[in-house]
Amino acid sequence: MELGKWADAFVIAPATANTLAKMSHGFCDNLLLATYLSADCPVFFAPAMDLDMYAHPTTANNILRLNNFGNITLPAGNGELASGLVGHGRMCEPEEIHQTLENYFALHTSLKGKTILVNAGPTYEKIDPVRFVGNYSSGKMGKAIANALAQRGATVHLVLGPVSSEGLHHTIQLTCIESAEEMYDACTELFAVCDAAILSAAVADYKPVSQAKQKIKKKSDEFTLDLVKTKDILKTLGAQKNEKQILVGFALETQNEYENALTKLKKKNLDFIVLNSMNDADAGFGKETNKVTLIEKNGKKHTFDTKPKAEVAEDILNLLSTYL
Ligand code: CTP
Prior knowledge:
This protein is α/β, with parallel strands linked by helices. It has 2 domains: 3-80 and 88-107, Flavin prenyltransferase-like (Rossmann fold); 115-323, Rossmann fold, CATH 3.40.50. It is 34% helix and 25% strand. It has 11 helices and 19 strands. The chain has helices at residues 2-6, 17-24, 31-38, 51-55, 57-68, 94-108, 140-151, 180-191, 233-240, 257-267, 309-323; strands at residues 10-15, 43-47, 72-73, 77-80, 86-90, 115-120, 125-128, 131-133, 155-160, 173-176, 196-199, 206-208, 227-229, 246-253, 272-277, 289-290, 292-296, 301-303, 307-308. The strands form 6 sheets. It has an 8-stranded mixed sheet, with helices on both faces. A hairpin with a 4-residue loop joins strand 17 (292-296) and strand 18 (301-303). The protein is elongated. The chain starts with a helix and ends with a helix. The site of cytidine-5'-triphosphate (CTP) has 14 residues, from helix 9 and strand 14.
């Protein structure tokens, strides 16, 4: 479908209740729907219909489905409707549509030309061929950051621990690793070509001193595993970075959070640090939401409410953009 491939953006205005229903369920019985299904550019749609149709839960559900597929709503306003009634369902004003598109393209090209490294997920440190020492990190926060960077036009290198790589923006250059050492090697090599790095991975601090070649058999009642420190990737990049490179780390703290995070920031030569508190019920490992405080090297603190990880990623990038 040439039309869907050629465009930089696709604006469907007005989008009737019928069109929204068909779009959200994959119908393809006219030219508009065929173009929509073939489009690989951002799609904006402006619902426009009578107030009762707009208020119907089916319509609300269809709009939500379309948003979940990545389409962008141009919200309907209140006012005079085609039927002569007055209420919610009036198509977004053309000036507002124009402004929304302008803002969208300004944001989505804001990091064009920048190359940024992100790491995410846990690391697994082998004990023997069937066991490892690991942690509960899901990699969701780092993946959200990588996606948000790609959406702003950056070239993104993501070094990802052993978690799913589903849902990543198609432009992200992915390196999959398993151990802290593999993550160290990949990150130190890639950092040299990057303008900035955001290290969100939950890298193991210790790994087994040695890895058994064969499965360790059960013998005595007690078993002691000797561990040795892994290399600190963030600290290494902090020591390597030139004055133009921006380095962002994460801190996971359970007590004296602000002081500990600030100490980490200074010790590792960071520009700012993202403090995750484990004391918040809706934040942390495996959750869909997070609550962070961003701390800059001058000690300035930015606090945020608990919100979806994709929105937390935007807050982090808004601060990063002021440095780049
Ligand atoms: N980090 C790293 N390499 C390691 C350990 C941690 O790059 N071997 C990075 C993490 O990705 C994170 C930051 O260091 O960005 C802080 O991690 P955190 O676990 O909070 O602190 P640690 O430095 O490991 O110190 P501690 O566990 O004592 O709090």
